[in-house]
């Protein structure tokens, strides 16, 4: 029998919570405290569920029935009223923004991924996605909005990163569908927005498995320890081969953890600061015992007064079984650049660390230490990533 106002007023609290049914799932809940609350009970996907509709008498009987009827209409459309309510609350609190949903997704799932996988995914979102669509309600993030993100990356020459970012956005949008925030994931509609990545054979190893094998081969290298450590430092600092060969002890500052290469040695004729990770410091400390009394960190085997030959590292790589089409001394730079971009580090920081010339003359006039704090952090993350790869079975 449907409820009446008189019946509601007469309902008194008992020792245990009890409910009085109205009709079509609506009921009045009376706990021992004496407050009276409206509840809507229903089944969704075979499960019994319940939604709160407010407190009586603030919510009148007629209002409670109107709310119930609205939720019944959602059920007929295949929408879970409880999830719909959560999404409405999220919108009211600003939690429906793409960035907020993406960070919620990340927090929920990143513990299931390898550490570096998580770093790369959140890094790509923070660098390439949040600045463009992060503040937009996820309901408004449609195919044209996502296309804008992807075409922007393509225009920067980051086609590979564009494909990765597309996949990550797709994961976030699938999560939003599952949580009832949206009803359609637009990412599959963009299947042809980016051209496929053309496989380009470069003399540099960039895939994680290949890097792991290279690092282990360097550790096991049976030639000169000076050459072995030169390759280790090349992987950690990705300086040009000529800069590596001509490294001098006078340029190394162990206290500041910096390697300052003079302008005359640099291709772009500007002093270059290389932040040294803990791993790079360790390599240099090992070399200090062997060559620290001389000028060069990596001297020639024939004369300590001369720098290492320009073919020494390449010859070692050939001896380790890598052809010139697979890996060269210069390949450590593409190895680092490709992976740091995929990790989501700012392109300007990476380019500065690679000591590339700045096309904008105003920006080129900036101090040579530009982005130094960020680059120090980046170089340590890179070194830790190499250690993780090397130790991965």
TrEMBL record:
<keyword id="KW-0233">DNA recombination</keyword>
<comment type="similarity">
    <text>Belongs to the 'phage' integrase family.</text>
</comment>
<dbReference type="Pfam" id="PF00589">
    <property type="entry name" value="Phage_integrase"/>
</dbReference>
<dbReference type="InterPro" id="IPR044068">
    <property type="entry name" value="CB"/>
</dbReference>
<dbReference type="InterPro" id="IPR013762">
    <property type="entry name" value="Integrase-like_cat_sf"/>
</dbReference>
<dbReference type="Pfam" id="PF13356">
    <property type="entry name" value="Arm-DNA-bind_3"/>
</dbReference>
<protein>
    <submittedName>
        <fullName>Tyrosine-type recombinase/integrase</fullName>
    </submittedName>
</protein>
<dbReference type="InterPro" id="IPR010998">
    <property type="entry name" value="Integrase_recombinase_N"/>
</dbReference>
<dbReference type="GO" id="GO:0015074">
    <property type="term" value="P:DNA integration"/>
</dbReference>
<dbReference type="InterPro" id="IPR025166">
    <property type="entry name" value="Integrase_DNA_bind_dom"/>
</dbReference>
<dbReference type="Pfam" id="PF22022">
    <property type="entry name" value="Phage_int_M"/>
</dbReference>
<feature type="domain" description="Tyr recombinase">
    <location>
        <begin position="201"/>
        <end position="379"/>
    </location>
</feature>
<feature type="domain" description="Core-binding (CB)">
    <location>
        <begin position="96"/>
        <end position="177"/>
    </location>
</feature>
<dbReference type="InterPro" id="IPR038488">
    <property type="entry name" value="Integrase_DNA-bd_sf"/>
</dbReference>
<dbReference type="GO" id="GO:0003677">
    <property type="term" value="F:DNA binding"/>
</dbReference>
<dbReference type="InterPro" id="IPR053876">
    <property type="entry name" value="Phage_int_M"/>
</dbReference>
<keyword id="KW-0229">DNA integration</keyword>
<dbReference type="InterPro" id="IPR002104">
    <property type="entry name" value="Integrase_catalytic"/>
</dbReference>
<keyword id="KW-0238">DNA-binding</keyword>
<dbReference type="InterPro" id="IPR050808">
    <property type="entry name" value="Phage_Integrase"/>
</dbReference>
<dbReference type="InterPro" id="IPR011010">
    <property type="entry name" value="DNA_brk_join_enz"/>
</dbReference>
<dbReference type="GO" id="GO:0006310">
    <property type="term" value="P:DNA recombination"/>
</dbReference>
